[in-house]
Amino acid sequence: MFSRKFYYMFSTEQLKEMFHVLVLFCLCCLILIGVFGDSVSVMEGDSVTLNTDITEITEDEDIWWIFGDENDLLAKKKKKKQIVSTYNGTDGRFRDRLKLDDQTGSLTITNTTTEHTGVYKLLISRAGNASKTFNVSVYARLPVPVIIRNCSSSSSSHQNCSLLCSSVVNVEYQDKNTYSCVLNNPISNQTTH
């Protein structure tokens, strides 16, 4: 495998150490790929589809969808036996919400809630096993903020008013005595003037 010249440049211990460093490097890369998989954001109540990027499952491919740190089995497809199964999750949070595409193996979660936020793993068995990770964030729908005016009169015929924005700490002053109150998350916002 190694030429004699290369082998004599390094001792057996040095080669073992280089091998261990290489293995550690590969494991770190795999962990980072799992942690930094595809990120998907969706609003509560919407559907989200996690795509396998496969056009058609072949007879020698089986697919599993796993959720969270507990490795909760959500769905599996055994192509050779034509078996497609979806599961509710151990705590039932996926009940009547999962659809597995028969041809591609893509997983759709319908009527999402914030409980569906988490890491989803796709495992595909084939000649070379493959995997893919999805980091799904489900955001609650935002209410329209309400600006509440609280005024008190002073004896010098001046009126002192304070504005309070419901659900938010601050109210932003615009020009010409116009104020706005904004609620937002990474994929939507609601504003009241």
Secondary structure: elements and pairs:
Layout: H1 4-9, H2 12-35, E1 38-43, E2 48-50, E3 62-67, E4 72-78, E5 83-86, E6 98-100, E7 107-109, E8 118-125, E9 130-139, E10 147-153, E11 159-165, E12 172-173, E13 179-185, E14 188-192
Parallel strand pairs: 1-9
Antiparallel strand pairs: 2-7, 3-4, 3-8, 4-5, 6-7, 8-9, 10-11, 12-13, 13-14
Strand order of the largest sheet: 1-9-8-3-4-5
* Quaternary structure classification: single chain
Instruction: Compute the number of helices.
Output: 2
Structural class: alpha+beta
Q: Please provide the count of β strands.
A: 14
Poorly predicted runs of 5 or more residues: none
**What is the average of the pLDDT values?**
79
What is the straight-line distance between the termini?
A: 73 Å
Q: Give the helices and strands as they follow along the chain.
A: HHEEEEEEEEEEEEEE
> Fraction of residues in helices?
10-25%
Radius of gyration: 27 Å
Instruction: Sum up the overall morphology in one term.
Output: elongated
Q: What proportion of the residues form beta strands (DSSP E)?
A: 35-45%
Major beta sheet, specifics?
Answer: 6 strands, mixed
